[in-house]
Amino acid sequence: xxxxxxxxxxxxxxxxxxxxxxxxxxxxxxxxxxxxxxxxxxxxxxxxxxxxxxxxxxxxxxxxxxxxxxxxxxxxxxxxxxxxxxxxxxxxxxxxxxxxxxxxxxxxxxxxxxxxxxxxxxxxxxxxxxxxxxxxxxxxxxxxxxxxxxxxxxxxxxxxxxxxxxxxxxxxxxxxxxxxxxxxxxxxxxxxxxxxxxxxxxxxxxxxxxxxxxxxxxxxxxxxxxxxxxxxxxx
Amino acid sequence: xxxxxxxxxxxxxxxxxxxxxxxxxxxxxxxxxxxxxxxxxxxxxxxxxxxxxxxxxxxxxxxxxxxxxxxxxxxxxxxxxxxxxxxxxxxxxxxxxxxxxxxxxxxxxxxxxxxxxxxxxxxxxxxxxxxxxxxxxxxxxxxxxxxxxxxxxxxxxxxxxxxxxxxxxxxxxxxxxxxxxxxxxxxxxxxxxxxxxxxxxxxxxxxxxxxxxxxxxxxxxxxxxxxxxxxxxxxxxxxxxxxxxxxxxxxxxxxxxxxxxxxxxxxxxxxxxxxxxxxxxxxxxxxxxxxxxxxxxxxxxxxxxxxxxxxxxxxxxxxxxxxxxxxxxxxxxxxxxxxxxxxxxxxxxxxxxxxxxxxxxxxxxxxxxxxxxxxxxxxxxxxxxxxxxxxxxxxxxxxxxxxxxxxxxxxxxxxxxxxxxxxxxxxxxxxxxxxxxxxxxxxxxxxxxxxxxxxxxxxxxxxxxxxxxxxxxxxxxxxxxxxxxxxxxxx
Amino acid sequence: xxxxxxxxxxxxxxxxxxxxxxxxxxxxxxxxxxxxxxxxxxxxxxxxxxxxxxxxxxxxxxxxxxxxxxxxxxxxxxxxxxxxxxxxxxxxxxxxxxxxxxxxxxxxxxxxxxxxxxxxxxxxxxxxxxxxxxxxxxxxxxxxxxxxxxxxxxxxxxxxxxxxxxxxxxxxxxxxxxxxxxxxxxxxxxxxxxxxxxxxxxxxxxxxxxxxxxxxxxxxxxxxxxxxxxxxxxxxxxxxxxxxxxxxxxxxxxxxxxxxxxxxxxxxxxxxxxxxxxxxxxxxxxxxxxxxxxxxxxxxxxxxxxxxxxxxxxxxxxxxxxxxxxxxxxxxxxxxxxxxxxxxxxxxxxxxxxxxxxxxxxxxxxxxxxxxxxxxxxxxxxxxxxxxxxxxxxxxxxxxxxxxxxxxxxxxxxxxxxxxxxxxxxxxxxxxxxxxxxxxxxxxxxxxxxxxxxxxxxxxxxxxxxxxxxxxxxxxxxxxxxxxxxxxxxxxxxxxx
Amino acid sequence: xxxxxxxxxxxxxxxxxxxxxxxxxxxxxxxxxxxxxxxxxxxxxxxxxxxxxxxxxxxxxxxxxxxxxxxxxxxxxxxxxxxxxxxxxxxxxxxxxxxxxxxxxxxxxxxxxxxxx
Amino acid sequence: xxxxxxxxxxxxxxxxxxxxxxxxxxxxxxxxxxxxxxxxxxxxxxxxxxxxxxxxxxxxxxxxxxxxxxxxxxxxxxxxxxxx
Lengths: 235, 491, 497, 117, 84
Fold this sequence. Notes:
heteropentamer; B: 491 residues; globular
C-alpha cells in the first residue's frame, strides 16, 4: 500500500515538472538562450582566449576556473570525511596482512602485472593531452586511481601503497587544491586577477594549464585510492 | 520645555550598577549591605534633585539608543513619570533597610539583593520611558528580574507560583508588544510625550483592537479582575519582596501603563468620543468590589493583603477611566497613597511573622499589647484604606467621588462608599482583635520587633499621615500629580 | 585604505579553504599542532572578512571577477550587505575552533582530530563562499562543500546513532541539493547565463513563465530542506543533538542559515526581474513559518536532553525568519535578515555552553543536570543569558527580530501572523524556564554536579564572548539594522515594499 | 502538450529517471539500495543539464583544424564535470557511513534501524 | 547518419536507460543491482558521447561505471548481499 501511495505522490510531482519541460526552449535548437548568450563567445573566441583547443577544458580551467577549484576541494573533502568517519577503528593493523578476500588466481595476477604500465601510460596521456583531445586532469587521475585499486585487489596491497608512500600521502591528496593556489597566485602576479591566464596561447598559459591538469590528476588518483583503502580497512 | 539632562539616565543606571556590584562582591556581608544601602540613598537623592525642575514644569530628556528612525530607547522625566519614580525610589530605600533586617535567617542573599536592585532599576526605567518601546523593554526585564525573587524559597509550591506568575505576566508582555507594533503602524510614532498620538482618522475597529490589547497587556500587572490570578499565589515570596514588588513596583507598573495608554497614547478627547473607557470603568468598579469581598474570606494575613491590593489598584484604573481632571488627580495620587499604606501593612505583617511566627488572622489576638508600635502603624494604614480624613486614602476617595460627579456618572461615587465599608469590614476586626480582645495566653510582655523592622514600618505610617494632610502644600508630591493632570487635560 | 585592496574578497574564501586543506599535512597526526594551525587560519579569516565588512559598510556592494573575465563570462564574487553573514560565519567558526581545543580530543578518537579541524575549516570556507558568490553554479558547489562537511562532522563522534542520524541528514541533504541543481539547470536553460545579476535582468525576457515558476519552486524546496522548515525538518533534531557541541553550534547557528541566505539571493533575482508573482509562495512560507514556530516549540517541551531541546528551538527560530520572508514587507524582511545574524550568535552561545556543561559533568539530560548553577556558575549564567535572549526578552538580541517581524506583520496587513508569532514565542519560553529552573532552583539529583567547577579557559572564553554579544547586540541593535536596511530596500525597491 | 514533449523528450526522460530515483530513495528499505536510487537521480539531473547544451547536428567543441561550425555548448559539460565529482564524493561518504551503521547496529534496513532508536 | 536516424538512436538509448534504472530498483540482490548500475552509467556515457560531449562521457565512464561501482561492491562485501 505504501508503494502505491508513493507512486501516486510522484505522479502528482511529475505533472508540473513535465509541463515545465514542455515549455522549455526547444531541445537542440541553435536559437535557445543557452546557446546564443554566453556560449557564443566561448565557442568563437574560446581557443585563443582560454589557450586550449578543447574549449571545454578551456572553460573548466580558465573561464570558470574557480568552479574546478571548488570541485577539487570537494573531492578532497570526501577523502577527509571518509577518513574522519572511519579512522580510529581498532582493527586497522591486522587487516593489512590478511590477503585480499578475492581467491588467488595466477592469470589475473599476471595480466594485471602486464597491463599496469600501459594503464599508467594511458592515464598520463589523458592528463597531458587534456587541452587538445577530450579528457583532462580528473579523468586521467581516475584511471590512475583505478589502476591502484586493481593492483590492490589483484596483486598486493603493499605494492600498491608503495606507489603512494604514506609519508607524503597527505601532500599528494591535496595536490589539486595546492596547484590551484599556486596557479592562482601566479595569475595574480601575471594578470592582476586571481586565476587569471595571460591572453593568447602563450607558453605561460600552457604551462599553468599543465600544472593544473597534473595537480588535479595526482590529487584525484590519491584520493580515490585512499578512500578505497580506508573503506577496505573497515573489517 | 525640554532639557537634556544626564540624571534621567543616571537614576535607572545607579541601581543597575548596584545589582552588578552586589552580584560581584556580594559574598562579603558588609559590602553587600554597603552597596545596597548606598545605591538606594544615592538614587533617592538623584530623583529628589530632579523634583524642583519637574515642579517648575521642565521635563528632562535623554536619548540612549536609536535602532531605526522613530524606534529606540530614550528617557523622559515628565510629571507623571517623576511622581512614580519618586515613590518607588523612596520606598526602595525604606524596603532595603527592612529587607536587611528581615533576610537575616534566609539563604541565597546575594541573588536576592542583586535582583532586588535590578527590579527597582527597571521600575524607574518604566517611569522615565519616553516611548512605548522603552516602556515595554523595562516591563519585560522587570518580569524576568522578579521571577528569581518570587521563587526565592525554592519549594515546589514556590516554583508553581513562579510559573503561574510568568505565564500571566509574559502573556501580558506579548499583548503589549503587539499593541506597540500596532500603535507604530497606526500612529507612525511611539512617543509618550504628547497627550495622545493615535490619529482620530484611524478606523474604529483597529482602535478597539489596539485599546483592548494594550489594556489587557497592562491589566495583567495592574491585576484587573479576570487577570489578577497571579497576585495572591505570588505571596509565597518573602515579605520584603511582597512588600516592594507586589504592593509597589510590579503592580504599579501595570497601573502606570494603563495611565500612559489612556492619557498619552489615546488621549482624553479621543477616548471620550470613542467611549472605550466606559467598559474599563465598569471592569475596575467590579474589581474593587470583588477584590474586597474576596479579602473578607482570607484567613492568611498576606493573602488578605494581596486581595486588598487587587481592589486598591482598580481605584487607579477607575480614576483613569472616568476621564475627568479630578478623577485623574485621584488616580495619580493613589499611586503614592496606596503604596505607602500597603507597604506599612506588609512591613507590619512581616514584623509579626518574624517576632511571633504568627501568620493567620485568627492568631492575632492581643498582638497589640505585645507589639504596640507595629500595630499602631497597622491601624493608621487600615484607616487610610477605610478613607478616614487626615490619611492619604481620604484624598483619593474624595477626588474620585468629585471626579465621578464631574463625569456625570454619579453611581461610581457609591462604589467608593461601598468599598470603604468593605475595607472597614476586613481591616477593623484585626485592629479590634489586636488591642481590645484579651490575649489567649498569659499577659505577654511587650516584645517589640527588631528596630530594623520597626523603624521602616513607623516611618511609612507617618508618611501616610503626611500625605493625607499636606495635599495643597506646593512642594509636596501631590503638586506633581496636579501638574501631570494639567498637562494631560491641557488646562 | 587597507580594506580597499580588491583581493580580500577571494582571500576570504581561499584562506580557510587552503588552510583547511593543508591541516592534515601540517598536523601530521598531532592534535595540538592541528588546533594551533586551525586557530591561526580562522583568525586570519576573521581579519579578512572584517576588511570586507568595513568596505561594504563604507562603499556599498562591490564585486570581484575571477580570471579577469567580466560578469556574464566568468565567475563573479559579489559582496553586499547580506554577504556580511560571512563575517558572522568567520567569527563564530573561530570561536567554535577555539572551543574545541579540549573538547575534540575528549569527544573524538585520536586520529580523527586533525580531520575534525580540516572539516570545520572547509565548512567555514563553504559557508563564506556561499554567502559571497554571485554565480548560481558556484553557489551549488559551495552548498555541496558545506553539506559534505556537515554530514561528516555529525558522524565524527562515532556514537551509536550518530552514523544513522548523519545518513538520514545526508540523504535528505543530497536530495535537496539535487532539487536545487535541477532548478539552477532550468534557470540556465531559460536565461542562458549563470551569473545571478545577469539572470535577474534576463529573466523578464524569458519566453514562457512556466519553467521559471517550477525552477523557483524547486530551488525554494531545496533551500527549505536545508533550512529545516517544518514539514522537511525531520533530519535536524537527531543530527544537531548527536554532533559534538562545537559542531552543533556551527550547524545550528550557521549551516541552517545557508538555505535562508539562498532564499534571499533567489528573492533578489525574482523580485528584480518581476517575471513571476510570488504572492502565493509568500503566503505558503508565512504559514509554514508560523507552523514551524509552534511545532518546534511544542516538540521541545517534551525533550529532556538539553541539546535535543536546543535543536528543536532552532526549528522555531527558523520559522521566525521564514515568516519574515513570507510577509515580504519592509520591516518583516529587515527583522528576518537581522535574526539570521542574531540567532547565529545566540544559538552558538547556547550550544557551546551546553557543550561545556556536558564536557564537565558528563550528563546530557536536564533531570540529571539539576543544581548545576551552583557547580558551574559562569557557564550556567552564560546559558541563562542565552536562554533569555533566545526567548526574546527585550534588552537582548532575540527581541529585535520579534519586534520588527510583528511590525512587518501589521505593515503587511496580516495581523493574525503577528499574534501567532508573539504567542508562539511564549511556547519557547516554557521549556527555557524549565532549563533555568533546573539549573538554579531545584535540588540536585547527582551530588557531584554542584562542585564540578567551571570548564577550562579555552571553553569558557568563547562561551562568555558569545553571551556578552547576545546582550550587546540587543542594545547595539542599530548596527545590524542600519546595515541590512539598504539591502532590503534594494530587494523590495522595484516592488515599492 | 504531448506533441511538444516529443521534441523535448530528452528532458522528459531525465524527469522520468529523476522520479524513478526518488521512488527508490523513498520506498526502498535497504540503505545501499536507497543510495543507488540517489545516484540514479544525480545522473538524471546531469543528463538534463547536458541535454540543455546539445545542438542538433553539432559536434564536440574541440577546435581541431577540420572541425565543422555548429558546436555543442561547452558550459553544461563544464558544470557536469564538477557535478559528477560531487556525486562520487557523496557516494563515498554515504557508503562509509553505511559500513559504520552496519558495524554499530548490525543491520542496514531502514525500518529495523528505526526501531533501534 | 541522418538527423532522423540519430534521433531514433537517441530514443533507443533512452529506453535502455529507463530499463536499466528500473532494473536497479527492482533487483533484490545488491551485487546484481550494482552491476546493472554500472551498465546504466555506461549507457549514459554512450548517450553523451553520441551527443558530442566526449569529456563528460569519459568522466562518467571512469567515475560512474568505475569508481562508484567499486565503492558499492566494497560496501556490499562489508555488509550484506541480499536485500530483505
